[in-house]
# Entry
Amino acid sequence: MSLPTSLNTLELWDETLLTGIPTVDQQHRDIARLGEKMLKETGLPLTSERFGDYFAEFWQLVTDHFETEEKIMRSLGLPSDQLEVHTREHSALLERLIQANIHSTTLSEWKHVSDIAHELITIIVDHIIHFDLNLKNAVTR
Ligand SMILES: [Fe+2]
Ligand SMILES: [Fe+2]
# Structure
């Protein structure tokens, strides 16, 4: 599965991205909604205070979500190596979000909130496809 070239999070949020775990799916949807709002900010500079607010909100949703998802994974009784790899991936992903945020203020071609929204959403959706969707099997088996 690959990301569509014109990134629209609402279109992305079809049932192929559902894990079947209601809390996880709701949190994914909330992150997508915020991403969609940010994608529309084509004229808001990354140097603006509002971008700081957006990023802080995005960060909060993602960190809360990872915490919840990891708790759920532990309760599902997944093999410990699988749990460890997934949890490690969450940490790596947070690092990538930090890097994207830092680069947003230093790279001149990244000028607006919509530009970084693309990057942030791609990171999250890619993770859902390659990691979170495996939870579907854990729930249905
Ligand atoms: Fe995950
Ligand atoms: Fe997730």
